[in-house]
Specification:
By secondary structure, the protein is an alpha/beta fold. Helix content is 38%, strand content 21%. The chain has 12 helices and 16 strands. The strands form 3 sheets. It has an 8-stranded mixed β-sheet with strand order 3-4-2-1-7-8-9-10, with helices on both faces. Strands 13-12-11-14-15-16 form a 6-stranded parallel β-sheet, with helices on both faces. Helix 2 packs across helix 3 and helix 8 packs across helix 11.
Length: 379
């Protein structure tokens, strides 16, 4: 009888940190662990700033959290990682390495030190250029990384996985596309959008280093909506060091009393926040938003969605069918799209119903994780 094959999923961050890559890797780890012929180990970084390696078992998956010596923007780093990665790949009996990026560092090193083990690199983003005021140095470093380092990492990986058409891995000869998905049994349709409270919800991180998420544009758009559509509220779900500035902006625009910031939510609290909202908005500004997992969660809940026509969002949202698309960085257009859904109940209900159907047909997790298991076995 053959032994279990071990898949090492190497990712810079992992739950309980909340984010699209974190949800993607957690779902993949669970699928590997549930397969009778495979074992999963996750190699990631500590979230509490500790330097010592911490090993736990979480939901039946062995999770190795490496310490980081420093953090540049959103990138944890440590000079010990090459040695530690080699040690843990050997100690866990890893057969296949699946690294996740775009956060530079851990995933790149995992591909480099894998030795003779087959490697799969999943790339979750288009260009990470921020393009915001004060990001000149960061953009120059990102440009250098994407031009000089990333092509070598791509070439070294046995297979590439692009999560959307704008992923930098898309189009390579050894690449396949496997999008993020949604748990359609957990994210279920709420009552028709036209009968829900007039709440616009955003779900995601709100860090200063993630200004490309465009949450400030949403706050400005909400201030315009609030003057025309009564009893509308904005709920920003998530944490980050940009949150105080967003609250201050809402206060400056006179809508602070209609802004809710419940922090990061998970489990039933998260699904309820999406299922009971009239609209889910994702106002991203750049191609760094290569997919937009929150949009699919909204669609699964039959919540109409509004997103920027940038990055991978147009791949997810069929404009006028499952949601509305607006120009990135345009608060007036974003406000007009949200107001249209808030005041046209039939349109909102129609888009919610169509969004649920698309989520079931294209983005249910079991089909997507099955493709990963086939890929791992082929290697």
């Amino acid at each position: 009888m053959s032994r279990h094959r071990t898949i090492a999923i190497v990712t810079p961050y992992y739950p309980p940190k909340i984010g699209g890559v974190e949800q993607y890797t957690a779902r993949l780890a669970a699928a590997v662990a549930a397969d009778p012929d495979l074992r999963a180990v996750v190699i990631t970084t500590r979230l509490d700033g500790g330097l010592r390696t911490r090993v736990t078992t979480e939901d039946g998956v062995r999770v190795v959290r490496l310490g980081a010596w420093l953090k540049l923007s959103n990138t944890p780093l440590s000079p010990l990682w090459p040695l530690q990665l080699r040690r843990w790949l050997k100690r866990t009996g890893t057969d296949v390495v699946n690294a996740h990026a775009p956060v530079p560092g851990l995933g790149d090193l995992a591909i480099a030190v894998a030795g003779c083990r087959p490697t799969v690199l999943t790339y979750h983003s288009g260009s990470m250029h921020k393009g915001s005021p004060g990001s000149g140095l960061a953009d120059r470093l990102i440009g250098l990384y994407e031009k000089a380092v990333l092509p070598r990492v791509f070439a070294r990986a046995r297979r590439l996985v692009a999560v959307s058409p704008v992923s930098l891995a898309e189009g390579h000869a050894h690449a396949v596309r496997i999008t993020p998905g949604v748990d359609i049994d957990r994210f279920t349709a709420g009552e028709p959008a036209s009968r829900r409270p007039r709440t616009i919800v955003y779900v995601g991180r709100m860090d200063r280093s993630s200004a490309w998420k465009g949450v400030d544009v949403l706050v400005r758009a909400f201030a315009r909506i609030a003057t025309d559509v009564s009893d509308t509220r904005l709920r920003l779900v998530g944490d980050g060091d940009a949150l105080p500035g967003l609250r201050a902006l809402a206060d400056e625009l006179g809508v602070a009393e209609r802004l809710e910031t419940p922090g990061a939510l998970s489990g039933d609290a998260l699904t309820d926040a999406i299922r009971t909202a009239a609209i889910l908005a994702l106002p991203s500004l750049t191609e760094a938003e290569s997919f937009g997992m929150a949009l699919v969660e909204g669609m699964a809940c039959a919540t109409p969605v509004v997103g920027s026509a940038v990055g991978g969002i147009p791949y997810v949202v069929a404009d006028g069918e499952t949601g509305l698309l607006v120009p990135a960085g345009d608060p007036d257009a974003l406000a007009a799209a949200c107001a249209k859904l808030l005041t046209n109940g039939d349109l909102a209900d129609q888009m919610g119903t169509q969004g649920r159907r698309v989520a079931e047909e294209r983005y249910a997790w079991p089909h997507l994780t099955a493709r990963y298991l086939e890929l791992f076995r082929a290697l």
